Amino acid sequence: MSLTDVLILAFGGLAAGVINTMAGGGSTITVPLLVFAGVPGTYANGSNRVGILPACLAAVLSFRRLGVSGFRDSKVIFLPVIFGSLVGSVLINQLGDDQFERLFAFLVIPIVILTLMPQKSKPKERESSWSSPTMILIFFVVGIYGGAIQAGVGLLMVLTLSRSGFDLVVANSIKVMINALVTVIALPVFIFSGKISWGPALVLATGLTVGGWLGAKWTVEGGERVVRWVMVVAALGLSGKLAGLYG
Known about the structure:
By secondary structure, the protein is mostly helical. 79% of the residues lie in helices and 0% in strands.
């Protein structure tokens, strides 16, 4: 691994960490960067998750330090997402990645439009239009997508949370908690399978962790207006990537 590779992974990880915390879809940057640094494609997915875990934990701590946490109001969705991710990881072995990715590429656009629609009530007054069973089912499906594909699940999660009654700042704090928990479950599978390139993974993890901390800080300072536009850019970029328009 050359000095150029180290710098690209570190600074690319920093940018992706900010994007992952404020919106989602950073893995569409980091996985190709790992491949560019010489990591085989089958190892890049596992190596990327090494950095996702500390990045999420750094973001959680940063959000808490700034007084933002939606854990108490979101506990109902944690188990559906976790079980869904387990189901998704099984399904992906039977269905092609392209089918999932192209479907999401087109689904993400109406989701973004819904998110950009103005809310009628103030953030603290919002209430979800979904019943608890409906919310559990929706986040189970989100978990299936995350277990199957992973790329963009953070974006999908925060968009869904925003339609569940959470403002975007709190939604991002919940998202990073869930991502950390899911990664804790998934990462050992890649480690025990030997699908980690530790050198590039640790360099990338350094950038991702710093980006996760900064992303949480900028999310709180910028508020919903900034987060919305970061999400739009991330969603459109992810949609084009998954649709095969570039890269």
